[in-house]
Amino acid sequence: MEKIDVIVVGSGIAGLSFSIYLAQKRTDISIVVYTKSEQTESNTRYAQGGIAGVLNMKEDSFQAHIDDTLEAGGFECDEYIVEKIIKSAPDRILELESWGVNFTKDKNGKKEAALEGGHTFPRVVHAKDSTGNEIENALIQKMKEYSNIQIFNHYQVLDLIVSNNQTNGVEVLNTRTKIIKLVKSNAVVLSTGGCGQLFKFTTNPSIATGDGIVLASKVGAKIKGMNYIQFHPTAFYENNKSPLFLISEAVRGAGAYLINSKEERFVFQMDCRGELATRDIVTKAILNELKTQKTAHVYLDCRHLDFLDFKHSFPMITAYCESKGIDIRKDCIPVVPAAHYQCGGIEVNEFGETAVQNLYALGECSNTGMHGKNRLASNSLLEAVAFGYFASNDIAKKNFRLHNLTLNETILNVDIELNSQNKIISEIQNIMYNHAMIGSDIKTINEGIQKLNTLKLDQHCNDTFSLNLWKLQNAICLSNIILEQMKSDLEIKSNNPTNFQNITNLSDSVTHSSVTDTHVSLTDIHSSVTKVLEVTVSVQPQTFKQ
């Protein structure tokens, strides 16, 4: 059995920045990063807009950024955490720059700051319109400088090993060799990203399935705020495509208009800020327009903007539009809201630690209290790198001693075929997009829960572990958590309490038994899945309702 000091699950900005920070502080600590695809594949890579931070203290201020964040979050944010992160921003941005991130500069050689929706001042530093890709590449290069960091591609973490509320390691599958092994560690850091792939329309890559939420919940970590899924208002509309290409918030910040098929601007009917209102408001305005006009999408109008300036600022967006036959000088861009960011997740303290000792969660899979009900544009990269720093400080202070724990490895036949139940995946995505959108009422949510409960998964023999079954099990469980927390939130707000108990820990649900004190083998997990999930795959996928 392998022994490692710290295991990091996920290779986005949160996991990579944490690893670098910790490697700098403790050269004696061994760090392994597991990523289920290639190390460059993460939500970070697709972040276009940038990272928010106050760098101009003469005109802007920390308090203004704090106020904007609280307002965007519906005043449901943790003010202490918001202040801590925002005041950390200048240092974190300078560190990223020192690690090789090339932010776009203005004519005076200073980092260029863009204005995005919900911000009262231009404070979003960026690398043109591919900031995430620039950060991801820089961090991967920086990691190579540290001999105590190793990264392994194509490793799927299947289970967390926890005893007496103490993290002991992970159970991990090499999807290329089909070998499952147990790896002992002193701490595990989940940086597994969000769950956008649960929805029909999403800007998230195929790996964004929310696995980390389920892993943490099974071992006793608390899950909070999953009812707050943020939809990006402007994804390039293409039916039957996932993920959708993102049209950055900064395009509207640069002056683009949202119009309907009659070329009428409509967002001002809902908010005086128009296209620069927060994402939840702009999304509501678009959804209302789709329903009223009975159309599949609206349009982003950039025809009045200077084309050369636009192309210089947004080369990737310009190129993508051109590849789809859209000339922004004379054509409007078809756009639709898409699941973009998970504001809730695994509840953590100010150092990123969960309710399970030495289990940490960073980035989009966590609920730090930063975002409340709606994330302010470009606060996500900031939160991820800030908590990477906070968590590294906490872990660096610990005197690790590997536990004297005997773990029995389970040898199973492994089936990693991922295509046999694509119909179920499609149905889950349709259910979530039709029943878990902004503005859904209790009736709509209940219909979604009922439809999830009619899904059936093919059963396998107990001596075979099916990665496909495991993924579908997680998707159904997490979808139920989202819908149930949406329902609970609406019931509380309507002062109409019921006997429903808000699900904040998946180990309390019927799908999993508690594994807080003992390790459950893959055979046990598989057996419980096949006993609980019954039904048919005959339900037809639903179409996008206008």
Ordered list of secondary-structure elements with their pairings:
Elements: E1 2-9, H1 13-25, E2 31-35, E3 51-52, H2 62-72, H3 79-98, E4 113-114, E5 124-125, H4 131-143, E6 149-153, E7 155-163, E8 166-174, E9 179-190, H5 211-218, E10 223-224, E11 229-236, H6 249-253, E12 257-259, H7 279-293, E13 298-301, H8 307-313, H9 315-323, E14 333-342, E15 345-347, E16 359-361, E17 366-367, H10 380-396, E18 413-415, H11 422-435, H12 442-452, E19 464-466, H13 467-493, H14 522-532
Parallel strand pairs: 1-2, 1-9, 2-6, 9-16, 15-17, 18-19
Antiparallel strand pairs: 3-5, 4-5, 7-8, 8-9, 10-15, 11-14, 12-13, 13-14
How much helicity do the residues have? 25-40%
What would you report as the Rg, rounded to the nearest angstrom? 23 Å
Structural class, by secondary structure, is alpha/beta
Envelope shape: globular
What's the helix count?
A: 14
What does this entry look like structurally?
By secondary structure, the chain is α/β, with parallel strands linked by helices. Strands 1, 2, 6, 7, 8, 9 and 16 form a seven-stranded mixed sheet that branches. A four-stranded antiparallel sheet has the order 11-14-13-12, with helices on one face. Strands 3-5-4 form a three-stranded antiparallel sheet. β8 and β9 form a beta hairpin. The longest helix is centred in the last third of the chain and has 27 residues.
